[in-house]
Amino acid sequence: MGVYPGTADVDGKANLPLGILYGVAAGALWGTVFVAPALGSDFTGLQLAAGRYLVYGLISAVLLIPRWPQLRTWLDRTHVRALVGLSLLANIVYYVALATAVQWGGVAMASLVIGFLPVAVTIVGSRAVGAVPLRRLMPSLLFSAIAIGCIGWQALTGGGAFEWRRVVGFLCAVTALVSWTIYALRNARWLHRLPHVSAHDWNLLTGLVTGALSLLLVPAALYFDSTQHSVGAWTRFAAISAGMAVFASILGNSFWNRMSRMLPLTLVGQMILFETLFALLYGFAWESRLPVLTEWVAMACVATSVVLCLHAHRR
């Protein structure tokens, strides 16, 4: 994912139709990361995260080469420590948990839980100066609670018997949601402290640090997987990793940053909903099925919750 609303540069011109189009494009690209664990189901979430972020770090390093003389004039240990924490929250912890949630609980369940990001960030940030009072968010929270109940029921039963594997998948999805929510707020604070740093450069620095951290994942990723993979399987794994790095981490973030310059801040956060919708579309297509009743209700409640959250901000 990219920079949360309020953190990107706003030097571009307002263009609502084009901005929404960029938001849709970002959501379409980000939605692919929910299907990737299903495509690489014979690999663990740890391996998928390591592969994706190794490639992401390499690409970020190449793109940072011409920018490095300028960046090194202000980058110090404090910033590096911040980037390490942000990289763990937004990438390593987030995607390991998300990939495990998809493999154990299904694409639909994982994407619906992550669909609460706009509301979750708003709630956590509601104590900030100038934030919307929590009482005005109660209608949004009500629909969030209904959706969580539907998702939780589907995760517990899978439409049939109780399955511990689906419960663990649901908990992993919640872990991913919490991790990225904390990242969004901390990342916003850091970019506010560094107005001279563009969102693009900060994203690339985060990618560079993430790539370095993913090197530490490689031994654990190999140790905890006793499966013997064929050459063809490793080739498929490399293609999945490169695809996620290029399309989701590089292009998706680029579209998101362009959108952030064109749309009002109250609208930017709600664009995350497109990621959820595309993830659901890809997931149902992959599983060759239509949503069940609880999933229909959950999707409607997630969308309603986000719209009500937006309405509370506009008021």
Task: Describe it.
The protein contains 14 helices and no strands. The protein is globular and about 55 Å long. It has one domain. The protein has 315 residues and is mostly helical. Helix 2 (32-39) crosses helix 5, helix 5 (77-105) runs antiparallel to helix 9 and helix 6 packs parallel to helix 9 (164-193). The two termini are 28 Å apart.
- Helix percentage: over 70%
Q: How large a portion of the residues is in β-strands, by DSSP E?
A: under 5%
Mean pLDDT: 83
Q: Which overall shape is indicated by the principal axes computed on the Cα atoms?
A: globular
Major sheet, described briefly? none
Structural class: mainly alpha
Number of helices: 14
- Weakly predicted, low-confidence segments: 3-12
- What gyration radius follows from the Cα positions, in whole Å? 19 Å
In whole angstroms, the N-to-C terminal distance is 28 Å
β-strand number: 0
Q: Give the SSE order as H and E letters.
A: HHHHHHHHHHHHHH
Q: What is shown here, in short?
A:
This protein has 315 residues and is mostly helical. It has helices at residues 16-30, 32-39, 45-64, 68-71, 77-105, 107-114, 117-124, 138-157, 164-193, 199-223, 231-262, 265-268, 272-287, 293-314.
Question: SSE layout and pairings?
Answer:
Layout: H1 16-30, H2 32-39, H3 45-64, H4 68-71, H5 77-105, H6 107-114, H7 117-124, H8 138-157, H9 164-193, H10 199-223, H11 231-262, H12 265-268, H13 272-287, H14 293-314
Helix pairs in contact: 1-11, 1-13, 2-5, 2-11, 2-13, 3-5, 3-10, 3-11, 5-6, 5-9, 5-10, 6-9, 6-13, 7-9, 8-9, 8-14, 10-11
